[in-house]
Each structure stands twice: as C-alpha cells, then as structure tokens.
Amino acid sequence: MAQVHSMPVQPPGAACRAAPGRPDHRLHGRVVGYAGFASGTGAPLAHRLLPINLTALVISFDGPFGLVTGPRARATVDGPTTWGRGVTVGLTPVGVAELCGLPMSELAGLSVDWRDVLGPRIGPLAERLAAAPSWPARFALLDAALLARLGPDAPGGVVGAAWQALQGPRIGVGALAERLGVGRRTLEVGFRREIGLSPATVARVSRLQRAFGLLGQGAALARAAAGAGYADQPHFTRETRAMVGLTPAQLCAFVQYRPLTAA
User: Fold this and answer.
1) pLDDT level of residue 256 (50, 70, 90 thresholds)
2) Cα 236 to the chain's mean position, in Å?
3) In the 8-state DSSP scheme, what is residue 35?
4) Residue 213 has pLDDT above 90, yes or no
C-alpha cells in the first residue's frame, strides 16, 4: 500500500531515487512503510504534495526538518515542501491516533511541523537518521523510535477496517458497509470524524495512487488506467487533471524512480 506523497514541481534534470523499507512486524496496522528518497542530483527541490489517503511523516536531511502531511484529495504546493534527501514514514489512521494523539481528520489537507504533533524531543531523530551509514540502519532507527512510542497492536474498529479495504481492489461504499455490518451513512460519518475524507474520496485517491505506481513501473497510459480500475483512459485523464492539475502524460515525467542504494 505504498503511496507517492509528493513529486518535484518542475521535471527534474535527473530521475529521483527511492529506497523502500519494511517496518518491524510489531508496527503492523500502524505504519504502512518506509521510503528513503533523494533528488537526482541530491540538491533540494520544491515539491508538489499529491493526493494521499494516509498521513506521511516526511523527514528531510536538508536542514534537517520534519513535516507531517495529512490525507488530501487535491495536490498542493503550499507549505514547506523543499527537500532533497530524506525518508518518509506512512501512517495509518490508528498509527496517527497513537503516535500523534489526535485523529487523522485533524491533519486532513494540512502540513505541519512534526514537532507540533510529536513533541520537541523528536528533533534529534532527524540528525541521527542523516548521520546513519546506510538505509537499513536508518530503517532500524525508525523502528526503534516508533516502537518506543507505540503500544501493542490494537484493532482500528469499523472505520479502520473499511479504510484498509479501500486500499485494495475496487469496491463500492454501499457494498463495503454491508460487508462490515453497518449502514452506509454510519460509515460515512465515521470517515469524516476519523479520516477527514469520505469513503468515496478515499477510494478515489487509492485508485489514483495505484495508477501512480503503475506509471512508475513504466506502464503505458492505457495499461495504467485499466490496471488502476478506471473505466477508460479519458476517465483517468479527467481524474488526474482534477486531482493533480496535470495530465497523465505530464505525470510520467515525475514518477520514474531509480533504486537508491548509497547512504
């Protein structure tokens, strides 16, 4: 369920690089994944924050500083979005509630300094991550820091289960509510209260993120549209324009990544 939280505002001169990381199994249900990142040159670039339906903790090694950015249905360039090297932590609704002490809905559409929600003691973590000798070492540091702040695994309730289901194969909101044994209206109210987006919007963002992933793997536009669950390529084009402000063809210049192996 990896999601692309941002991309450069302008097409980079060299492809950006990424290093995926798997969190400790004890963080299951709270942390979706880790991703190291670096611009093609390593220099800081201004970024466009993309539609996501989770919360991303972006830790930049340029400065360093940290940003917590919540779920959103529209891309934005507002806020401190310039970085070159760093790491991202993807958080589920349960992870946000436990780590930040507030529902994900309070972060919807916002980007805030990580110290405002995680406390001042989190600051040295960015410096330790930047100084670590390798990406596996950085991911181990993140595991230790998060395990120290999170308790034993706990269920996320009906909303958490519905949110998780909407990250997978396409399913209608009514059918999902029936599967979970609740009314559609109950599910929609719960999503607004806990997630900050409606179930239909979460499904819409999930479909767009699947298309991002396919484009990043080099898929042609028609294949990316079909694989993500769009009715046809024109539908995919309309959704991308509405949610990102770009065409799918323009997106292809941004979502190609190379493996990031060096520290």
Assistant:
1) low
2) 20
3) E
4) no
Q: Which residues make beta-bridge pairs with 31?
A: 91
Q: DSSP secondary-structure letter at 22? A: P
> Of all residues in the chain, what percent carry a pLDDT higher than 70?
93
Q: Are 215 and 224 in contact (CB under 8 A)?
A: yes
pLDDT in tens, 185-198: 999 999 999 999 99
What pLDDT shows up at residue 121?
A: 67
CATH class of 157-259: mainly alpha
CB neighbours (10 Å) of residue 128?
14
Buried b (16+ CB within 10 A) or exposed e, 49-86: bbbbbbbbbbbbbbebbbbbbbbbbebbeeeebebbbb
Token code pair at residue 262: 């060096």
